Amino acid sequence: MKNAKLICSVLLAGSLFGACTATNGGYNNLNNKTTGTAGGAAIGALIGQAIGQDTKGTLIGAGIGALAGLGWGAYKDQQTKELQARLQNTSVKVTDEGNYINLNLPGGVTFPTNGSVIGTGFYAPLNDISAVLNQYPETRIVISGHTDNTGAYSYNMDLSVKRARSVADYVVRKGVNPNRITINGFGPDRPIANNSTTSGRAQNRRVEIQIFPAY
After folding, report:
1. CA gap 164, 182 in Å, rounded
2. Backbone φ, ψ for residue 113 (5° rounding)
3. Looking at the whole model, is its pTM more than 0.85?
4. Which of 12, 36, 76, 206 has the least C-beta neighbours within 10 A?
5. Which residue has the higher pLDDT, 53 or 127?
C-alpha cells in the first residue's frame, strides 16, 4: 500500500511535467525543448524506490534517475557504447558528436527508391535503437530526413519529411514517448558528400537520429 501511494504521487508529478511539452501532430515542434530534466530525474529516483523491488522497476528507476547522478557526458557515453554494441553488424553508423549522439541510417537500405515505407530488413536495427532509447529516457530525439539533389526540390523536401516521420512512427510503436521526438525534413539542403558522384548522392540519402540531453 505504501508503494502504491508513492507510485501514484510520482505519476501525478510526472503528468504535471509532461503537460508542459507542446507537440505538433504527435511530435515536438522544431524549436520546442523538452524541459524538466532535474524534475524528471527526481521523479525517476522515486519510481526506482517505489518499484525497484523487481528487475523491470529497477531498470526504469535507474534509467530515469541516471542523468542526475552521472551527468550528461557519462550518460551519453553509456548510450553510445550500448548503441555501438547493438548496431555493430548493421549499416547504421553511430558517432559521438560531443554534445549529442548521431545515428546515420542509410536511405538505400532503410527505404525503397522514392519510397517512405521502411523495409522489413531494417526492422531489427530499429528495434535495437528503440530499446536503447527506452533504456535511456532522459533524452530528446531529433529525427531528420535528407535526400540528394536529383529531382524536384519540393518533392525531395516532402520525401525527407515522410521518411523522418516513418522512422519516428516506428520507434513510437516500440514504446518511445512521442513527446521526446522532433522531426525535420531537410531535403537536399544538408549534404554530407558530393552530389556530383553516385557514391556521394547515396551518402546524402539518409535519415539521422540525433540524441540530445533532455534540457
Report:
1. 9
2. -55, 130
3. no
4. 12
5. 127
Sequence spans of domains, the chain: 23-33+71-213
Please state which CATH number belongs to domain 23-33+71-213. 3.30.1330.60
Position of cell 539518409?
206
Between CA 109 and CA 121 the distance in angstroms is 8
User: Over the stretch 114-134, which tens digit does the pLDDT of each residue have?
Assistant: 999 999 999 999 999 999 999
pLDDT at residue 6, rounded to an integer: 42
Q: Are strands 139-146 and 181-185 parallel, antiparallel or unpaired?
A: parallel
SS (H, E, C) 32-67: CCCCCHHHHHHHHHHHHHHHCCCHHHHHHHHHHHHH
Q: Which helix (H) or strand (E) holds 142?
A: strand 139-146
- Taking alpha carbons only, the member of 10, 9, 18, 48 closest to residue 36 is 18
Is residue 50 pLDDT above 90, yes or no?
no
